[in-house]
Amino acid sequence: MNFKAVNFVLGKIFMIVGVLFALPLAVALYYSEQELKSFLIPAVLMLAIGVALSIKKPQKMQIYTREGLFICGAAWIVMSAFGALPLFISGAIPNYVDAFFEACSGFSTTGATVITEIEILPKSILFWRSFMHWIGGMGILSFMIAVLPKGEEHTMYVMKAEVPGPKAGKVVSKIQNSARILYLIYIFITLFEAFILFVFTKMRLYDAVTTALSTAGTGGFSVLNDSILGYHSAKVEWIIIVFMFLFGTNFNLYFLLLVRKFKLVLKDEEFWIYVLMNIGAIALITVNILPIYGNLSDSIRNATFNVNAIMSTTGFCTVDFNTWNTFSKCILLGMMFVGGCVGSTGGGIKVTRIMLYFKQTLAQIRKTLRPRSVTKIRMNKNVVDEEIVHGVNTYLVVFCVLLIGSTLLISINGFDFSTTLSSVISCLNNVGPGLEMVGPTGNYADFSIFSKLVFCFDMLAGRLELFPILILFNPNTYKK
Prior knowledge:
By secondary structure, the chain is mostly helical.
């Protein structure tokens, strides 16, 4: 482990996060709120630590996979620890563990909350909750690579540790330019959503911005107690549906559209499977909930909103789907596992992995029937590398182990099975709402401190594709 290089990069990250506290601080100043010190204290602390760690650049800046994974896992834990301070210092969440849970949920874009009365909180605190989603959506390490004036050596290993999906791709030859392009696309779509909500729905600018930030990060924190339902507007719901879908799509496809490579977009298998699964789930749930609403229009809108909220792992709510039939709830539970596309801000296992598992199953069946045949797994007509297939399979094994282990630990609370299992599934896949106690109208406030720490681990592990967090507990990581 190259500790000097790791400390230097972590210092740069902490300085960037310290600067980002300026935005909620500006919101507090604009609304003449008393929460200035709530943001000043963590900002000064992060800047001080960042300067101390990165004041001198080491001669050897070699950063490889181990260093990249360690930087990623450590940065997100520290970010969450300091991101909790504004919530704790302001008194919005008096218990630090609860504040840490909220910050982990924010940065991991999960959207699970322990707050029962949201609308009484200061606007700067609510802005910070949504802004954490936005920061976590594309990733702070990718942001660092994008904004630094000169790319550091082996930045691919750092970005690869954070980018969701089986592999980290580049849209152009240089990884730094790729990060910048993707972030510009991310910023543009976020601003465009805020503009549409503000201009066409007469939503307050503050609400439009915070909603756009949460949607972009596929997080789900809202400034209203009733989430999106509180706006009582079908137009608002349909606009958010469109953007939840867009942010659940691979951002590389948007770059291909910009450079007019339309054929590559149309040939992308993952995108079409994402679309078909989305439409199929909407159709099945619409038919199933039609007797509940007695109105086809409302049934389609409610089904479309909640399928996209769950599949993109945004987690916004417009109805209490706990009241739906078991069939519809099972579909939503399945969508929690699937999640968004590779290269999106969505969580979950990812559509590409689901496709690879299915293709491997078919390949194994063919191999069983014809033992001498040579079977190759292909994606977009390209042969998938064996290393990627192995990595995808390993991910599933580790995911299942964490799911079972976490469920057993959470079951100590003694809550019902649906609450226990769905809460773990929701946190591990960065969805937010689950079933029963943690459904759209519930929250995670009643869980024990130990359970909340388990959820924090699950949320960060799920957002970082498991291994950057797990590597922190491996003694071999710290060997030189």
